[in-house]
Design a protein that fits this description.
Layout lengths: L6 E5 L18 H4 L9 H6 L1 H13 L9 H11 L3 E6 L5 H5 L6 E3 L2 E8 L5 E3 L4 H5 L14 E5 L8 H12 L3 E5 L10 H8 L4 E4 L12 E3 L3 H9 L3
Parallel strand pairs: 1-2, 1-7, 2-3, 7-8, 8-9
Antiparallel strand pairs: 4-5, 4-6
């Protein structure tokens, strides 16, 4: 079990696979099974190609996030917060399952945005995804902004887009104020999220990596765990 009193947590897609949401780079990952799907996550491809947008919206309509439920891994981090030991829950996930599990929104720092909202790339209007899904279901393959006619996109950060600086600053602050950094279900290949491990290591903080596949930080980590997150994480955060 983790005995540190101040813990910063970084989560990736691996924590949500037990909730039925596939990861990206794992053996059954979206990009592993269909490398062409990466185009849907590239902002330049998305803006330039109606075909890519149609494919992306079709994918969005079918994503498991709409009905997925938190698993024991998510609930373990709620318990860590309840114990008063969580400095911040930094996530690369866009599924909203941490909040659905009961984690306080002010402690959840969504580095890559959220699938639950939609942005207009022209007028910057933001609307709930729930307002757009019915349009997709009724046959609108590439819904445009109803105010300005601009391209709509889920409020997630695609390759080629910058992270929200305020969110990243909060993630850095949570890391700096922690005694230990815990990386859960992330390949630690995407920056600047993975760089938070460097921030912790350079400050002499222990790093625990919990991921099914090897990561670039395994050799520097204090502990590396390959066991299932949904069973291992609850045990790690349980107080003696």
């Amino acid at each position: 079990m983790i005995k540190a009193e101040r813990i910063a947590v970084l989560t990736g897609a691996g924590i949500s696979t037990a909730s039925g949401i596939p990861d990206f780079r794992g053996p059954q990952g979206i990009w592993t099974k269909n490398p062409a799907a990466e185009a849907m996550f590239d902002i330049d491809e998305y803006v330039a190609s109606r075909e890519v947008r149609v494919a992306t919206w079709k994918h969005r309509l079918a994503v498991p996030a709409w009905t997925a439920e938190p698993n024991p891994g998510h609930l373990a981090l709620v318990e860590l917060e309840r114990q008063g030991r969580l400095t911040g829950l930094i996530t690369q996930n866009v599924d909203g399952l941490h909040q659905k599990a009961g984690s306080s929104p002010e402690l959840v720092h969504e580095l890559h945005g959220t699938v639950w909202y939609v942005d207009c790339l022209q007028c910057e209007r933001q609307i709930p995804m729930a307002d757009v899904l019915p349009r997709l279901e009724s046959g609108d393959e590439d819904p445009a902004c109803e105010v300005c006619g601009g391209i709509l996109k889920s409020a997630t950060v695609s390759f080629g887009q910058s992270l929200d600086r305020a969110v990243l600053d909060r993630a850095v602050a949570a890391t700096e104020s922690a005694d230990l950094f815990l990386a859960v279900g992330t390949s630690l290949q995407v920056y600047p999220a993975a760089g938070l491990c460097d921030l912790a290591l350079n400050a002499g903080k222990p790093l625990i990596v919990m991921n099914a596949q090897p990561t670039p930080y395994d050799e520097q980590a204090t502990t590396v765990l390959r066991t299932p997150i949904e069973t291992t994480l609850p045990d790690l955060v349980t107080l003696p």
